[in-house]
Amino acid sequence: MASLRSSGYVDPGWEHGVAQDDRKKKVRCNYCGKVVSGGIYRLKQHLARLSGEVTYCDKAPEEVRLKMRDNLEGSRVGKKSRQTEYEEQSYLNFNATDDVEEEENVGYRRKGKQLSADKDLALNMTPLRSLGYVDPGWEHGVPQDDRKKKVKCNYCEKIVSGGINRFKQHLARIPGEVAPCKNAPEEVFLKIKDNMKWHRTGRRHRRPETKELSTFYLNSENEEEEEQEEEEGAAYPMGNDKIVLGGDRRFDRDSRTTFRGSSTCNGSEPLSKRPRFDVNALRTPKIQMPLSGKQVKTGSSKRSRREVISAICKFFYHAGVPCHAANSPYFRKMLELVGQYGSDFAGPSSHLLSGRFLQDEILTIKNYLEEYKSSWAVTGCSILADSWRDFQGRTLINILVSCPRGVYFVCSVDATGLVDDATYIYKLLDKVVEEMGEENVVQVITQNTPSYRAAGKMLEEKREHLFWTPCAAYCIDQMLEEFIKLNQVRDCIEKGQKITKFIYNRIWLLNLMKKEFTGGEELLRPSATQSASSFTTLQSLLDHRIGLRRMFQSNKWISSRFSKLDEGKEVKNIVMDSSFWRKVQLVRRSVDPIVDVLQKMSSDESLSMPFIYNDLYRAKLAIKINHNDDARKYEPFWSVIDNHWSSLLHHPLYLAAYFLNPSYRYRPDFIL
């Protein structure tokens, strides 16, 4: 059967648009000037003002809108009644997707290629929307825009972005993409959950009298054609009792492409340096399934699970994926949906991953960020300026926005040679405040260096409704650095460094210590900052002082060549000196409360400033108690804390937050 295009037929949509490329996939509207992607059919939807896939054309005349709508309805009816002979045989697989609008348009979205059908097969291609079908989700929500992409819940009044399908996930309390609705009645929850289960796991039932299905070729963009091929999987030749999946040349080609394409993750790494892959993984045997669709187990369930986990691990190792990626909720969700789909699922190619699905995910993130920004008007936000130095020696400033919902990355600025310029810092922060909205910004947090302090004061003078505050972690780290400058502390740190350097620079001695005297534990204990690491390592030395003494008194040490060295003798004398360990205990009682506060700030607890204010105040009291109220011992450390106390904690904003914190305000020991 000759196609309409080959017979000289010209689509009436071309009277109202101009093609922008050779494939005619991008068309410019003659009325509003918008460039519509998706071919002439999508342009006619644009002119006919059909919702779901493209924005409306508000400037098209009414007669053009009616003409295009009639043309689209006519093409749908014609497809419904059309039964032609197919030239090639394969199978049509109706797959329910998460996007309801893609399911509704499966019958007419792609046009222009030759249709072929079995004579005994009658396909009803009428979309659900044209039959008057109304999604049950609309009984429980109200659309907030013309495209029905934002829906307001009737129970919790939350506005859900992403259309009716995302809204039903909200009602059905399906985790992963939207917050669940806790106010929806139980019968609504069960009803919508059953509806979503059909969409996610069910396939449209084929008619019992249908013997064979043929391939339905649809005209689409390259990515859509590739997506359809991957959803249909490999060829399905019909046998008497089994269907053979895979094992063809296309599978081998895709396998080679997939593993070869993994090198694109790091363009600087040559392909020849990639690890040699398991040959058995690339030569996957044919998977056989009975016609009933049930998987045939080849061994015990424990062995099968081990094989599956081994295959997942090989992907992580060979593709260079960090192991902690397995903790991602999206990884768990992926495995769940693949298991629900069935064993005939064919994974997407690298081209498909970097194509339309990437753009869809970007759009989802943008919609989420819009909701994120809208919360600033209610809770306010804090702007963070984090300075750091990379491996190339450049000074970079990361600009972030923090609010109760999380942290939002704004930009990264190269400030090499300018980080000490207060005027430059002031202009940078002022520009960020202007972009975020001055009415939304509560405070701007930076380091407590002279340039940042000057820039913060200039910013407060211009914008009277926000505060500049120094970074609490930076100020506490400055306290620890000043602690190290105290004579008694500096002496302990220097001697502790001599011990660790001597042991860790000699592999034999390090192995001896870990194997026989410390139970396999290390002496070095990294922490949030370099100063904090010095104190945590000093604490580790104190914990292992008995084992260290035993090691330097052992026969293996005495008979070793290291005991004859002057450095070895000096280290042994330090370890055997009781006065050294008494000084370390004094330093530990003085510094540990402050180190604990810094470690809590660097953890995932995300403490707010009112809690840190209380922790620092309690840490100061703990130092006094540890020294039995002996002012001669704790006064040097208190003076260092007081030098930073006024700039960090005696701030109107933080004092008000601490005073209004109910977890402290109503305690009998509350002190301001």
UniProtKB/TrEMBL annotation:
SUPFAM superfamilies: Ribonuclease H-like. InterPro entries: DUF659 (IPR007021), RNaseH-like_sf (IPR012337), Znf_BED (IPR003656). Residues 8-64, 132-188 form the BED-type domain. The keyword Metal-binding applies. Keywords: Metal-binding, Zinc, Zinc-finger. Residues 254-276 are annotated as: Disordered. One of its GO terms (molecular function) is zinc ion binding. It holds the Pfam family zf-BED. PANTHER family: HAT DIMERIZATION DOMAIN-CONTAINING PROTEIN, OSJNBA0013A04.12 PROTEIN. This is BED-type domain-containing protein. It comes from Erythranthe guttata (Yellow monkey flower). The lineage of its organism: Eukaryota, Viridiplantae, Streptophyta, Embryophyta, Tracheophyta.
